[in-house]
DNA sequence: CATTTATTGGACTACAGGTATAAAATAGTT
DNA sequence: AACTATTTTATACCTGTAGTCCAATAAATG
């Protein structure tokens, strides 16, 4: 990454930690990073975008740490699971951004992008947790995996918040996680409440970075073929198959794809396939990033 | 209440609902309330304080509704409990401030007062829920009441948030509450995690308004007699017994009490009794308010 | 060396929350 | 009715914010 951009991100990070996001004026970031305003807005279109970049780094860090923790261990290893959950807290704690991650609302139209970004992150986290609950507790939990993931996640967050507000001591995060797991580690008496397909768009792409997002995107689109055709929307159908053609070819025209994907995304809005939109968007962004890195 | 103040609060409420708190400039409130800036700052020292006033009203509303729901019903009536929980959501929904209530963090030094205010509210809510869980599920849940209250509260909040973010339809709040209750309505396998005395300062005063907060305050202080003496802090001990003397007398000197209570509060800081401080503060404030109303 | 690109730094806009104050309106009292 | 005290208004003002714009400068590139 660019040197200046790195400088900015690092400075912003330390300042956000020390004083909080909205209490940190851009001016302070500029001075700390030894960079001019022009440069800042050359790399980030807004302060919010800068924060999102930081949060993205943290996300990568968490994913990496969790991957490391899993190496050589069974996927049903409970201890590993606990440590993996704790990873987010440790890193957020290190960056002191936990509160920010927990505060998903704020109901401000101004920070719309930030809201969506954080929503994406927390929904991915819940989805991941449901998957891991299946791993760890086996088939008996399969049906209730999302129910229990939500309960677990909710319990962990609220408990750690309470311990922080009341005790003001260091939070015993692993104990808290064990407590939350204990709360779900009992027989479910009722039928499942949350449906698995709500969470379809938030499944993380396995082995990200190593595999080819091109194939993933291709497969996802192909899977939608029949549904798209059924919608009988000429434009949408055209975009869809055009994108698939490009993905099949050796050298896709990236500029054309960029443009068509844009229209495709818009066309997907307000259709039955709207819920798949974001997922496609994510895959596409990954695909483009990989292309850019390779070139 | 003052007419102008009412105008302002009503206007602010509708605007906060429509556009969100920080997206609503004071100017808009002034115009909507047909009031000048000077008047606004005559009644509220800041926009934040105005919001807190609104939230206080909502709290009163919730307490009132819950009281109504309980009339003539057994305290172990589960249906009543569910409706009581839902009351907060219905009212917050009506005022569309649920998101705000849920977003307790934001980590901004600027909104310190707001943060503390919201903390108080959510901790009171959890405490109330623990009490009610005892009522409804009986002795078997007593030990785990706080554990389960946290799990229940966390599950309800996260679930409703997820349903809102993903489904974007109206949240089936009662079903969500039944789900959350189902998540705790099972045998606890582990010893309790959260200690009851964390929540001591957040117990709501029963039958508030009808009974005498003077007696409540007196009892609370008396209960602390031995602990205070044990601390061997001359000043603190003096304040403590002075306040008790005043409370016993027919006509306490309110000005003196105000001053001594202030010092007493400060003296309590950083002692073993720090956790009782807020509770005493609340009782004292109530006591003073009643006095003021009677005069 | 010449051209392109990145960077600077400051001026500038628009808006926010909050203060200050003198004049006008209102309410309360004798 | 007259006087007083309080409330309200209207407006100007201060401080600080995010973000835009742009001409001048520096750095990188072929």
TrEMBL record, chains A, B:
Domain HTH tetR-type, chain residue ranges per copy: 2-62
Protein name (record): HTH-type transcriptional regulator TtgR
Molecular function as annotated in GO: DNA binding
Gene source species: Oceanobacillus oncorhynchi
Pfam families: TetR_N
Known DNA-binding region: 25-44
Protein origin, superkingdom: Bacteria
Keyword Transcription attached: yes
Alphabetical keyword list: DNA-binding, Repressor, Transcription, Transcription regulation
Record GO biological process: negative regulation of DNA-templated transcription
